[in-house]
Specification:
Blueprint lengths: L8 E5 L6 H9 L17 E7 L2 E7 L10 H15 L2 E7 L6 H13 L3 E6 L21 E3 L8 H11 L14 E6 L6 H9 L17 E7 L2 E7 L12 H16 L2 E7 L6 H13 L2 E7 L6 H14 L7 E4 L11 H12 L5 H14 L12 E8 L4 E6 L5 H15 L7 E6 L9
Parallel strand pairs: 1-3, 1-4, 4-5, 5-6, 7-9, 7-10, 10-11, 11-12, 14-15
Antiparallel strand pairs: 2-3, 8-9, 13-14
Length: 444
């Protein structure tokens, strides 16, 4: 079943660089799929939710299909075939300006045997002058070729109408349900994100390759762990700051940042066998700034010797002090070590992320803390904490109303005390101060 439940599935199939991802973006009405004028930019099969004429469906953008591919190309082709097998409708994309190639003909033969409804998109027909070339595509044997320009939108409405008409009968709007908790799987390239996802799924869902940066698109997978279903997003590795990235990497970085924003909890994967890098720290900062629950997993623990473990403890204390509240697991995506601890850590982080403290209890506790350790004197006067409130959760946010500004060190002290008392492990908490203006009272 697809990541979107009972929605019908449309698989976009075709050889490399015929414009599949551009057409997917046209269908979605937004730029989601990575597009670059280089063959093979899309490597995994990637699912998006689309809507047209009141029908909601899942679009699966696949890597270029090559029947005689080898190596990585063969695995891309295999991923495309999996999507084809799971689809209700296949959207075959052909470059009308090139005509039928041997690969196109091979794809056509596979589709003829599949028994799936097929919509044939004759792409790159940017004007009426190019339409006579479309007729030759009838010989593929998969139905009427529909001229379209994915880049300019020409013919896309007719194509979508035909696509929706071929979908199986289903409610126009799926029934609302409480979906699985969303986990963004984040880390720099080649840290083992896809390997971890595959270990959890129990099948090779995401492409795994020794080359850094194999995953460029986010890939949603529903994973059941101990009876609980989670939605994992295997994101493209964050290699550098977004404004420094170019091409496909730029858009992948944007979507990885979007995945953090859309998640409830982030699983930050670090390479235990290598020093903690500036890239790792930037990713951690992004997660904190987004206010997401967090679990840190030190991957490749099977490669760590005793000397490295001692150095790693010092590195974590020095480099990851800002997220010392996050649960840390030592795992191996390759061997499966530590997988049983993963779900409990995610659940605990989410519980902390949504924890609310009753106002009366909060004020009683803070009053005792402030009485025992008053704020430092500032400008000859000692500020008073008048009262506190927690206006929201996810993450927990606290506002202190005071008679004057509080030193940053004292705010950090109060945050530590809140964590000690209420066990906010796994979540950032926000603590702000509203100092009473001179001559005004702060009411409850």
């Amino acid at each position: 079943m697809t990541a979107t439940g009972e929605l019908p599935v449309v698989a976009v199939i075709g050889r490399p660089n015929v414009g599949k991802s551009t057409l997917v973006n046209r269908v979605l009405g937004r730029r989601e799929a990575v597009v670059e004028d280089v063959p093979g930019v899309t490597r995994d099969r990637v699912a998006y939710e689309a809507e047209w004429a009141g029908r909601t469906f899942t679009v699966v953008d696949t890597g270029g299909w090559q029947p005689d591919a080898k190596g990585m190309a063969a695995r891309i082709a295999a991923a495309a075939e999996v999507a084809m097998d799971a689809a209700d409708v296949v959207l075959m994309v052909v470059d009308a300006t090139v005509g039928i190639t041997e690969i196109d003909a091979a794809v056509g033969r596979v589709l003829q045997r599949s028994g799936r409804p097929v919509i044939l998109a004759a792409n790159k027909v940017d004007s009426a002058n190019a339409e006579p070339e479309v007729a030759a595509l009838w010989s593929l044997g998969v139905g009427e070729p529909m001229p379209v320009s994915a880049l300019h939108g020409r013919g896309s409405g007719d194509l979508l109408d035909a696509l929706v008409a071929a979908l199986p009968e289903a409610p126009a709007v799926p029934e609302p349900s409480v979906g699985p908790r969303r986990v963004a799987l984040i880390g720099r390239p080649n840290v083992g994100k896809s390997s971890l996802l595959n270990q959890l799924v129990g099948a090779e869902r995401s492409l795994v390759d020794a080359a850094a940066g194999t995953t460029r698109d986010p890939v949603d997978s529903l994973v059941e762990i101990d009876g609980t279903t989670w939605r994992f997003v295997d994101t493209a590795g964050l290699r550098r700051r977004v404004h420094e990235a170019t091409g496909a990497e730029y858009y992948s970085s944007l979507r990885t940042s979007s995945a953090i924003d859309a998640a409830e909890v982030v699983l930050l994967l670090l390479d235990a066998a290598e020093p903690i890098s500036d890239q790792d720290l930037r990713v951690a900062d992004k997660i904190v700034e987004a206010g997401r629950a967090l679990v840190v997993a030190m991957n490749k623990w099977d490669l760590v010797d005793e000397g490295r473990r001692e150095r790693l403890d010092r590195e974590i204390e020095r480099e990851l002090g800002r997220i010392s509240w996050a649960a840390r697991l030592n795992i191996s995506a390759r061997t499966g070590r530590g997988m049983k601890r993963l779900a409990p850590a995610l659940e605990a982080a989410l519980e902390s992320w949504q924890r609310r403290i009753p106002t009366g209890e909060l004020n009683a506790y803070l009053a005792a803390i402030v009485a025992a350790t008053p704020p430092p004197v500032r400008g000859g006067k000692q500020p008073k904490v008048l009262f506190a409130t927690q206006p929201s959760v996810a993450p927990p946010k606290f506002v202190l109303f005071t008679s004057g500004p509080l030193e940053a060190s004292y705010r950090r002290f109060l945050e530590r005390k809140l964590r000690e008392r209420y066990d906010f492990a796994g979540t950032p908490i926000e603590l702000s101060v509203k100092a009473r203006e001179k001559g005004k009272r702060v009411g409850r």
